[in-house]
Amino acid sequence: MNTFLKEAAAVKPSERQLAWYDIEFYAFIHFGPNTFTDREWGQGNEPEEIFNPEKLDCDQWVEAIKAAGMKGMVLTAKHHDGFCLWPSAYTEHSVKNSPIKRDVVREAADACRRGGIKFGFYLSPWDRNNELYGTPAYNDYFCNQLTELLTQYGDIFYVWFDNACGEGPNGKKQEYDFPRYIELIRKYQPQAVIFNDFGPDIRWCGNEAGIARHAEWAVIPGELCKYSEVQTGEGPMAEEGDLSFLYNTSQSLGGLDNIIYSKGLTFTPAEINMSIRPGWFWHQEEEPHSLERLFRTYVTSVGANCCFHLNLPPTKDGLIDERDVKRLKELRALLDKEFGNKIPVAVTKKEGGFPTQPRYEITFDKPRNDFKYVILREDISKGQRVESFQIIVETRDGMNYPFYQGTTIGNRKICQLQDPFAGQNPLTKTIEYGASRLIVQVTSARDEVFMKSIEVC
Questions:
Q1: Alpha helix positions (H), 125-235
Q2: What is the CATH topology of the domain spanning 345-456?
């Protein structure tokens, strides 16, 4: 078991995964015929003439995205209805036959570059318009379109796939050739990360509501992420069970209770994705989610070893709704208020302890009780290792109070000690005369812990 735990601790991210973690927060843009039909999933038979965003302004999109502090955009180049937001040479069902006759993908990519943010795209494997769907020839069609997007629009930071699959005209569902798709992306855009339910780089969190797991591991069984690189040998009980039941909706993906049965582990972190509104496409009657919900999702995504992918659907005019823009600015203001002012601290690692149970002492410049968050980061370039930890407050009268108990840390763990929407933590009253220091005690880890940083806000 000890050998396997050390192997698990040494499973490392790729350079492209580390770059993805640094982006942290980025936008999804769902836009197409559904915007004009008031649907979420199109039928594939919508006339091209329906797509007519007369005030289309991708620079306005980028301005809204940056107002929230997001660093990238992923555009739905094609959704399930098969309508292409670029003039693809392989179908007539595209913007080239719409009233505006504008290459939306190019305009979005150029706007991102002007605005200094990253650009990526979503290309739906499911196509309800193309007659080849449900046959082997469809994979050729899909790869042709994928190649257009990979080679004609500059650097791509993200290619986003889902696994939606329906029946084609022949009554058969399409067998997607994801290994072939992945090979194309690696050939033309080797720096791009790829999202899919099953890897290779980023996986789905299991819901579209922005809800995170209690403990989020990036190191998970290869049985789930079959397109990801396996970096370890078998778990100690691999021959005594199987993990065929695992899916992204499982609440324990990287815990010891399942990795010991694995044939090998991968580094495949999760993305938390949700829309700013109830729907993914714009609907006039919908309002943006509350500031509280968006803030909490940020804390439990960016602050829980994931990244946050927030959808912003343009209106029929081709603009981000002003109601959504207002909410994005409110979110940025709150994030700046809560995390923008770091409290001066001195962090020392207590020597002489066990490598898997290090103790970090955080000393303030003066006794204080105005801190709300402790932000922990492992050096995940060496692997994700911490399984559990606790934070202890030591008051100036020498009393110690366990203040927070957590599970995984990973790239970033925001430990929320006070809630801006719920008021002070009742425990704060116990330190009303001031805390002299905080103690972060790792209580369990798979191997020696490498902490990258500890911050207090």
A1: 137-151, 178-188
A2: Jelly Rolls (2.60.120)
